[in-house]
Structure formats: C-alpha cells, structure tokens
Amino acid sequence: MTTIALYATDTMADWEYGYLTAGLAMAREQDPDANRLIIASETGEAITTMGGLRITPDMAVPDLPALDALILPGAPSWDSGHDPVLRLAAELVAAGTPIAAICGATLGVARAGLLDDRPHTSNAAEFLTQATEYRGAEHYRDEKAVTDGTVITAGGVSPLEFAKLVFERLNVFPQPVVDAWYGLYTTGERKYYDQLAGA
C-alpha cells in the first residue's frame, strides 16, 4: 500500500488537489489496498479551505508515519511559515521520496531550497523570486507541470497535469488508464470515456 499525505492548511485552494484526491479514491474503489491518503495539518487542528470547506485532519505533520509521497496544495500563506512540513519535504526529497507542490506551495519549496538544482515550474518565473532564498531560476520551465522524478511542481491553473504526474510517479494506475483519464478531462471526448470504462 502506498501511503500519501495531503498537507491541509487554511485557505488552501480547493481545485488544486481535487482531481488528485478523487483519482486516488477511484484507485481504492478498484483495490482497497491501493493507497492510503492521510490528511495532515501543521498542528492537527481543523482548517478552512479557500472555498469555505471545513476539514478535520487525521493528524499533525509531526505525527505522520513513513510516507511514499507528500502533496502540498497552494494557499496565499506560503511566503512564510509552514516550517514543519517544509522540513519534512526536505527530508523526503533527500531520501528520494516524491513530493508534489502546486501554485503557492511551489513558493514554499523554493524557500526551502528544493528547487535550486532541478527542473521545476510554478505560476510564473517571477512568482518564485518572492523567495529571497530561491536560487533555481535557471532551472525554471515554462510548462504546466514538471517533474524530475522526485519533485513535482505545477502552476495553480494546472491541477489535471499535476494529478497526472503524481499518478504516473506513484503508479496509481496503468499508463493507458492515466492517458484515458487525462484525455477525458482535458477534451471531454467520448472515446476517452470508453477507454477509461473499458480499462
């Protein structure tokens, strides 16, 4: 079983992780042992998303078990703080365990120095320069989502591409299923629905 943690923080952007968490749930419908999704906030206390949803996490970040992946959604607050989860992210990256950051969370991982020496993306190149600790501008890619195998990054308007890279990195589905899923949600074409249903 793959153990995945979703970091929950106040004002996190609801649309940025929705495709991903729904896809993980779809995998669990096929195989209950496919993955385990844990919701963790900095202290374990409830948070309120940007859309006003109240989420009660399973635990605090320091109490997380060994992980196979860490998901960091965006929020307006990533320009400071979030130290416990950023320390965890750095430890995971050092161990070769994937982390995935989207939108504002890319600013957080830039502050932690995790984008200094690998290809990455964000909302825009200049967005990351808000982090004075950031030294990775030469590795910035003007793409929807980027992975180097360990760190996955995406802009806030690319939740599908973000989810796709996570699915592929964690082998959540066979590649033909990922391709059909992505085709369906990017085009709405019936052929992709049929491929997905057939798979």
UniProtKB/TrEMBL annotation:
Residues 3-167 form the DJ-1/PfpI domain. InterPro entries: Class_I_gatase-like, DJ-1/PfpI, INH-QAR. SUPFAM superfamilies: Class I glutamine amidotransferase-like. It holds the Pfam family DJ-1_PfpI. This is DJ-1/PfpI family protein. It comes from Rhodococcus navarretei.
